[in-house]
Amino acid sequence: MENVKANNKEELSQKREERKQEEQVSEGLKLVIDQAKIKCELCTKPEGTLIVNFDTPTTQDKKTATVVEKDMKSLVFTGNCKKSPNMALPCASVMQLGEWQNTGTLLVQDKSPLLKQSTIPCLYGGSTIEITDSGQRSVPANLQAVGAALPPKEETKVKILSAYFAKITKEAGDPIDQETEVYDKNLKKKVKVIKKVTTQKMTLEKISERGLSYQVALVVETEGLSGKKIKIKVRSGKKKVVSDVDATVKLINMKDVEVVTAAANYKTIKPQEEFEVAVDNYANDVKISNAADFKNKAILTLMLNHRTDDLSFELAELILADADKKAFLYIEVKSDEKEVEYKGKAGTEGLTNTFLNEEGQYFELKYKEQPWLITARQERKTGVTEATHCSRIIDEYHKINREHKPSGCTTITNAWCASFVGWCLSQNNFSAQLDPGAFSYGEIKTRYRASAKTVNGKRVPVPEKFDDPVWGKKTDNNKLAVGSVCVVNNKKHVTFAVAKDKNGTHFYGLGGNQGDAVKVSPYSVRNSSVFPIEYTIADEDYELPIYYRELTADTVA
């Protein structure tokens, strides 16, 4: 009797387990609908909500979820990702989703539906997001998905709110772990590995002016355009300076610069009239530690120039020729989406899609090099070389020297780099070393060459010395600065600093006797940086523009 009871009890337990498994299978096969609950263990607030953004047939009066729901607008978590630096980044800003797994076979608008058993991987953290509640409150007896009534469509207002220029500042962030696929030669297949990825914290400071050749961010703030592309133009405003009023101003897209792998190709990059950029392009960048700050923004990085490898002196001359010494720019923004609400001023087509387009709001493009650099650039434009302008080198550059006035230009004893520097400074009424050799420009006191004087009827030698008056001033901690006089090449050459390279290992100097000509050349070692005594050094002088070009003297003309 006891055996019979035991057998019955065991059989009853087995049936209960079978029924439980059947119920679990049945539960796992439930269709997922809007407002279903999801879970990610790597979120500081693991429970999230699945929002159905696409119009689909309804189940229990709610839209049915399909495999197209796989972005941060559909999988909504309000916490931060534990895999992000210091767990500081919102899940929405770093989420990188793969493909849905274990989906249904019944097609809903030609897409596989999500089931409660469905999962999706997050490639950023390496976790699996699960559906914990399908959203259904009971299993409907008869599901008629095809032809079911659609809910009223919720209209999302699309707005272009503002557009402006900003200065970009970047600082190092904490490295993060990122899953990626690499090819394993031994296994002869791709495998997933975790790699350390360097991050940056980026800040944008709204600005109203910037110098020619410098970089800026053009920022467009939006609503309802996440992931959509917009088109941007920079136009000339107020009066004709660099182009006709309302005409486009061509500029360099830094995206074109960043993809160059061979330095020789920088010179092939052309300026553009129109730019296309996606909203949230920075918000979705896992390498930006504060990416969430750039939600609903489209950010375009520009070089205010026609060329990447040097200042466009033709633009500089147009700005210099203007009475205000600056060009006025504004921004035009367009979206291909329907019924866009623009919050700007009326543009050329009647849309209120222009920004900064009024007095007091224009962005000002200036040419900020010092007067002596303008003179040096004019000599370069003239094409001064030893072969073509030796008489100019002798009669103009050497002639300003107090005592040492070489009668040639092609030998070491007739070197003219220091004479060129002194001539450019003197032409603009700034002090200079007027009895120079290149090394003397590293000293702020005046150089007096060795000579002789008569004492008691005898000629007595007078040694070389540096003495009053003081002609120059050194930069702060000998820092490189735009327009500073720099002694280089083991104190055997002197030139004017005009830019630096992208890595900061070299600076570009504009000077004479560089390859027997006036030209721009790269230098890696600098002995000193000095300004004439009359010049007031500004903080902005220490920020040099970046030239993108090969680091070989022969290719830097």
Report on the architecture of this protein.
This protein has 557 residues and is of the alpha+beta class. It has 3 domains: 22-133, Tumour Suppressor Smad4 (Sandwich); 159-366, no CATH class; 371-555. It is 14% helix and 30% strand. The chain contains 7 helices and 31 strands. It has helices at residues 2-28, 91-94, 254-258, 313-321, 371-382, 386-397, 417-427; strands spanning 36-39, 47-50, 58-59, 62-63, 75-76, 119-122, 127-133, 158-172, 176-184, 189-197, 200-206, 209-211, 215-223, 229-236, 252-253, 275-278, 297-303, 326-335, 340-342, 354-355, 363-366, 445-448, 451-455, 458-462, 465-470, 472-474, 485-488, 493-500, 507-511, 519-523, 526-532. Strands 8, 11, 13, 15, 17 and 19 form a 6-stranded mixed β-sheet that branches. This is DUF4280 domain-containing protein.
What is the gist of this entry?
With 557 residues, this protein is α+β, with helices and mostly antiparallel strands. The chain has helices spanning 2-28, 91-94, 254-258, 313-321, 371-382, 386-397, 417-427, and strands at 36-39, 47-50, 58-59, 62-63, 75-76, 119-122, 127-133, 158-172, 176-184, 189-197, 200-206, 209-211, 215-223, 229-236, 252-253, 275-278, 297-303, 326-335, 340-342, 354-355, 363-366, 445-448, 451-455, 458-462, 465-470, 472-474, 485-488, 493-500, 507-511, 519-523, 526-532.
Largest sheet: 6 strands, mixed
Count of DSSP-assigned helices: 7
Overall geometry comes to elongated
- Distance between the terminal alpha carbons, to the nearest Å? 107 Å
- Outline the low-pLDDT stretches: none
Number of domains: 3
Instruction: Briefly note the structural class of the backbone.
Output: alpha+beta
Helix coverage percent:
10-25%
Radius of gyration: 34 Å
The total beta strand count reads 31
Beta fraction: 25-35%
If you average the pLDDT, what whole number results?
89
Protein name: DUF4280 domain-containing protein
Region (Disordered): 1-26
Biased composition (Basic and acidic residues): 7-23
